[in-house]
Design brief:
alpha/beta; 7-stranded mixed β-sheet; 38% helix; GlcNAc_PI_deacetylase-related; LmbE-like_dom_sf; N-acetyl-alpha-D-glucosaminyl L-malate deacetylase 2
Length: 218
């Protein structure tokens, strides 16, 4: 039987794995603990910064960027799906739930990480990913459920709707030893450089300290 996975990320877009969790991944991987990633879309609706033309070309570019990022992190286990970027909310939910459930059952992670109820920034794909991962997690036998983590920030959202669903972190990881590699991994997502600038401007502390909210059962 395969060794139980330590951490499994389930996120919608290429680059959702790197900003808030790459240091944690590198920590676990350095300890010899397997980790994995499920990416639900190819990111074809993202920014291009004039580097390519059209959704298909962007999707191919982001595939290369993600592969480079995961090589820097040292993460070999990755499942790429092709649900439509920006339109997850319009898709039948059961196939998405099934992808998340099957990934949890196959990899048997100790921890699953995804977005919180407000999607962190309200992005519809982030919110939908939260919904389907939570539904998949709820559908498992309680004895088989992994621990469930959400991305979380100490900085409360300014938007009132996002603030209403804000969850303060209760898990903290000092990842300062991995800063150089983390920044290198972030920089692999060249086409999404504006997202990098936005993240560092808003959450500079999360480069060296990765914070999460662990769901408490009962």
């Amino acid at each position: 039987m395969l060794a139980r996975m330590k951490l499994l990320l389930i996120v919608p877009h290429p680059d959702d794995e790197v900003y808030g969790a790459s240091g944690t991944l590198m920590t676990y991987l350095a300890e010899g603990q397997p980790c994995g990633l499920v990416t639900l879309t190819r990111g074809e609706a993202g920014r291009t910064l004039g580097l390519c033309d059209g959704p298909e070309e962007l999707a191919r570019m982001r595939e290369v960027e993600l592969a480079a990022c995961l090589e820097v992190i040292g993460l070999p286990v990755h499942e790429q799906h092709t649900f439509p970027d920006k339109y997850l909310k319009d898709q039948p939910q059961e196939p998405l739930i099934q992808v998340a459930r099957e990934a949890m059952q196959r990899h048997r992670p100790e921890i699953v990480l995804t977005f919180p109820p407000n999607g962190s920034n309200g992005h519809p794909d982030h919110v939908t990913t939260h919904t389907i991962v939570k539904a998949a997690w709820d559908s498992l036998d309680p004895a088989e459920r992994p621990r469930l983590w959400y991305y979380a920030s100490d900085t409360p959202p300014e938007n009132e709707a996002l603030l209403a669903q804000w969850l303060k972190p209760n898990v903290r990881h000092d990842v300062s030893e991995w800063v150089a590699r983390k920044l290198q991994a972030i920089a692999c997502h060249r086409s999404q450089a504006l997202s990098t600038v936005d993240f560092i401007r808003k959450f500079p502390d999360r480069i060296t300290t990765e914070t999460f909210y662990e769901v408490q059962e009962g």
